[in-house]
Design brief:
Two copies of one chain form a homodimer.
Chain A (H helix, E strand, L loop, with lengths): L5 H8 L2 H10 L4 E2 H7 L4 H13 L3 E6 L2 E6 L1 H29 L3
Helix pairs in contact in A: 3-4
Chain A binds a DNA duplex (30 and 30 nucleotides) through helix 4.
DNA sequence: GAGTAATGCAACTCAATGGTTGCAGTAGTC
DNA sequence: GACTACTGCAACCATTGAGTTGCATTACTC
């Protein structure tokens, strides 16, 4: 009920730079170096972000020759949305029940 | 496209303690002091968490006599789910388009 | 094989944040 | 009016995390 593995995904999504990276990857797969040319941060910073994104399954690495390209795992985002939706449904029911009680039965 | 006000909400949801607080509030409205009796952290720590939850609209304060009870704003959770769902739909389309191109026209 | 261009790893800085304790203020209760 | 219990504020500590620079390593290219 406490959402299990959801929290780390939210934590990963709670950072603007990470969204910039996802947005950039949305234009097509890219390596950390390539991303560094498009974003105002270092390659290493991007590498770290990619690591946390990969950790929660939002992105996956793909070795191409001497570089490592990253690709957005679309399914993970949808899955997160669905799980959050399910959670919010539970919440709504719960809150409705409370309200009913509070409004004096 | 970068989701605007969504990121802070995710950041707020990316913390286990905050979920504990939300879960506890799910059993009914409660004050920071009341929550402190049920959770393994200080009242002040809870107060801070409540502040960030309130900041992103997940919770709202309600003065009752000399105490301030907090209530989960159910709608905000659902709204976040919906916005994330919409976002992931955009992503899926985008990724599908890329895949199509990548697979050689 | 030499050169080049990518990744990987490590150490470091700095700011944010989760947490604490302590105290002041405020508002019910007797 | 005195007591009590709750909130609010401030200072402080420790940890995490975003970001940097520097260097080693690996793997294509010529």
């Amino acid at each position: 009920m406490t959402s299990g593995t959801l929290v780390p995904v939210f934590a990963a999504l709670g950072d603007e730079t990470r969204w910039s990276i996802l947005a950039a990857l949305g234009d097509g797969d890219a390596s950390a170096s390539a991303l560094a040319e498009r974003l105002p941060v270092t390659r290493q910073a991007i590498a770290k972000h990619l690591a946390v994104l990969q950790e929660v399954g939002l992105v996956e690495p793909l070795r191409v020759g001497r570089e490592v390209q990253y690709r957005v795992v679309g399914g993970e985002l949808s899955a997160t949305a669905k799980r959050l939706d399910a959670l919010s449904a539970v919440w709504d029911r719960r809150l409705a029940a409370i309200k009913e009680i509070a409004e004096g039965l």
